[in-house]
Specification:
- The strands form three sheets. The protein has a six-stranded mixed β-sheet.
- The mean pLDDT is 93.
- It has two domains: 2-143; 149-396, Metallo-dependent phosphatases (Purple Acid Phosphatase, chain A, domain 2).
- With 398 residues, the protein is of the alpha/beta class.
- The chain contains nine helices and 14 strands.
- The protein is elongated and about 80 Å long.
- Helix 1 (2-30) runs antiparallel to helix 2 (35-65), helix 1 (2-30) packs across helix 3 (77-111) and helix 5 runs parallel beside helix 6.
Amino acid sequence: MWFIFVGIGLALVTVCGLYARRRLTQALTHFGVRSRRTRIVRWLVVWLLFGYPLLVIVAVVLSRLLGQATIPRLDGVLASFTLGIPFILTVLVVLQSIPWLLALDLAYLVVRRRPGVERLRAIGIVVVFGAFALYTPTRILVERGDVRMRHFDVGPGATPAAPLRIAFLADIQQDAFTDSDRARELFAAVNATKPDLVLSGGDWINTGPDEITASAAAAGTLRSKLGTFSVRGDHEHFAYVDRNRSVREIEAAMKAHGVEMLANEVRWFDHDGKRIAVVFLNYNYIVRTDATVIASLLAVASTADYSIVVTHQLDRQLAAMLEDKVDLVLAGHTHGGQVNPVIGIVHVPLARLETRFIDGRYKLGHRTDVIVTAGIGYSIVPIRYAAPGSIETIDLRL
């Protein structure tokens, strides 16, 4: 499914980019910018919009043709600052400008015969591009590194006993930008909440095998009474071209540091005389567990006093299978949208195209609570835009 979104995204960037480039060059020409400089701007816009995705596609194709074990990565510090970040900033400025440029064009059609309208239109175009070119990187820089520590209470709360405290995290995606020191710092904050149980929605690494050992060692610093348990994320498959090798190496490294990674299993925990079933689903872009397997796991958990599902991804199909079948669903994957552009005057999470469960707490049916963490790290490009990260602590009161 993800490649469909990528294809649609590239088509949208192409159409909007060409339209925005035309309007920008028209405005520059109106203000007397020489044709040579205007051509430079036109070609610069083309490179900023299409150079990075073209290089990524070429790198992936060549690596597969040459039979390499890993795909050449363009998410390192140098490539990110010279290619990835300029690409995403340009895309954001263009996409956010489009509604305003269309509004200017519509107004121009209405009053185009009035004197001075051409100049006002050109000024409006420059103002629109300039406003988003200033606002977008400023907000990214101001919010960089923000991770919210959020608390939730769940359960019927029928007994006065102390709650079972669960720490839930996902999408650390350890790499050059969310490195081992940063991960350990955040895990220390998790430990400070004194959790009884740590659960994870996966995506411990970003891409490539370089961070496997370091991410496992960092994860091993998490402390709780009952241990740390995780499902597989998409990125657990991205260390090597051989996805099974990726999963094997990451799971082995995590196990060596006391972190159990589970796929389609039910684990039982006791608290104050109550039995709690936790279903660990293997559900992500790479693997979609069959509905019959999910149904059998839910049947096992149905005898529990309280049931929890941990999944990396929660889309519409999985939500329909879980609705009113369990008490709590914990998910990650969305990064809170990670890049939430301004459409008109409000930020809109693009993750809404995939799911309505993007960030925070939701109600699914009458019985099921859903908590989605915004995660910690980055995917594809090392920025978050109007999408701060989060780590969740959950007090289960039975």
